[in-house]
């Protein structure tokens, strides 16, 4: 292990070992959501990570373009999860020169936009890449829950997993940066293969449901659904046929928004 960077992002094979999804719950939830709201087959996956979800959607018949900022993740995706059109780009300024029927932002990808301008820019990218009436489907952590339930912040949490002959151990501490409205994470990794320790610092924006609705409205979206579950990372996890809940009191937010038609003005000749 190296001493800096993000271990699981830099080594995607470890990410998939640490966070296995053998049933492809995230992709299946996304597909079921796209079907429920009548989406077309062109899909943009923003923050695709290792490509597992994008590839499953590709095999399900979607035409998928998948974007990430990590070259290591994209190389892994192309090698192990082929099918989608993988692109290196940032969700805050991506310009792919095409439109899609749906944009996916799974696993809290939107929360890597830490500031209001960054979040507004990312939602503008989503809107710019959607056909009229296109869907934005997102799955992210619920800032309101995290500020109301301090159990995740009580102390360091230790987790262990094994890959090959090596055991990896992480010690994670979370804290809320109230001024910046961020959930900050410090994680220290050790491995029993003699490699040096690895430390990393990451953060996620804490968004509240009404705040999210406001940013979406400004970006031109109409919220069709916003609920806390069931979803691919809830307890109990989503299963085929489950219907969305109605509360917003748990750890996750699940969003479906439609790009509102642009208003037509008399004399407007824009095609």
UniProtKB/TrEMBL annotation:
CDD domains: AdoMet_MTases. It holds the Pfam family Methyltransf_25. Residues 43-134 form the Methyltransferase domain. SUPFAM superfamilies: S-adenosyl-L-methionine-dependent methyltransferases (SSF53335). InterPro entries: Methyltransf_25, SAM-dependent_MTases_sf. This is Methyltransferase domain-containing protein. The lineage of its organism: Bacteria, Bacillati, Actinomycetota, Actinomycetes, Kitasatosporales.
